[in-house]
Amino acid sequence: PLTVPAVVIQDPACTLDTPAELLLSTGARSVDHCVEGFCSVQASPIGDATAIEGARRLWSSLPTIHRNPADLPARADAQAGAWMSIMGRAGGVVHGASHGIGYLLGGGFNVPHGLTSCVMLPAVLRWNLPANEARQREFMVRTGLDALRPLADHVESLFSGLGLATRLSQVGIGPDKFEAIAAMFDGGPPISANPRKVTGPKDLLEILELAR
Q: Does the reported pTM lie above 0.85?
């Protein structure tokens, strides 16, 4: 219990020396929390509300920080968005394959944690479309994004506009590693909680191909 903080102070000035890629990709990770949380098979009203508000703040603040790194209000807004992005998970909302494959990429292939979301979230959204197209569209409507475009395109545009990788090839992961990554899936969460059921390595290979 003594390792759990009693208070967390979010001071945007403390982030000014954080390397840009680390800061922005951490923000991208929070976008992943919002999107996968809202699209979760265990989505909840409070999780939806915090995911939507977190996403709205992040979609606005991250490009502002990229354009003007000295903008402290934007950094504070991003911190608030990141905090809200995880509130659903605190209430039991499970994430999906973007997070799960990200763990495999990070633990097995040294891809930084934030960048795993940048390269996997668009691909997972495209693969999940047959299972949750309506939910993805609702996310866009509630965050003010153009619902005539796929959510995956919005996410990919956001990340690439921040100068971040959006393809596995951009983080040093080629097709020669796909089978090894797919073989690491042990059948457990969060991949097993993905909105479109992942039945085994074959499905993971399909998702990895979409991120190629």
A: yes
